[in-house]
């Protein structure tokens, strides 16, 4: 992932990540929780990202990538593609990945096989402060 990755679990966290990115003029990848494609679903994640982007002034001017983790199950990947998501993480069997990538390419979507590392906001009491500090120091 070329952009820093922040793992979000809620609307509040997505807004905090986007606000920090806008403040620091940093492009960003918002990554779902592990297996979110199976648990909350692609429609929820897509709505979360769209609503947070609309709420945070200036977020639409940044390069924001929404990356949905679908775990190792192909069904959520296909659902994500039907919902228009273009960045998906699938950790299943390589032969299944190859078939899913063929389908994704027809929709100008991409599927990565390894979940990227990033700042995980799970359980963080003040996501805004954490995001700002992490992005300011170079997101290492």
Features:
single chain; 140 residues; alpha/beta; elongated
Structure, explained:
The protein is α/β, with parallel strands linked by helices. The chain is built from six helices and six strands; from the N terminus they run E-H-E-H-H-E-H-E-H-E-E-H. It has a six-stranded parallel beta sheet. Helix 1 (11-24) links the parallel strand 1 (5-7) and strand 2 (28-31). Helix 4 (74-82) packs parallel to helix 5. The chain is elongated.
User: Which word captures the global form?
Assistant: elongated
- For the biggest β-sheet, the strand order reads 5-4-3-2-1-6
Order of helices and strands: EHEHHEHEHEEH
Distance between the termini: 13 Å
**Sheet with most strands:** 6 strands, parallel
Which residue ranges are poorly predicted, with pLDDT under 50 across at least 5 consecutive positions? Answer: none
Mean pLDDT: 95
Q: Helical amount among residues, as a percent range?
A: 40-55%
Estimated share of beta-strand residues = 15-25%
Q: Secondary-structure blueprint of this entry?
A:
Layout lengths: L4 E3 L3 H14 L3 E4 L4 H4 L2 H14 L8 E6 L4 H9 L4 E3 L4 H12 L4 E3 L6 E2 L6 H10 L4
Helix pairs in contact: 1-3, 1-6, 4-5
What does this entry show, briefly?
The protein has a 6-stranded parallel beta sheet with strand order 5-4-3-2-1-6. It is 45% helix and 15% strand. It has 6 helices and 6 strands.
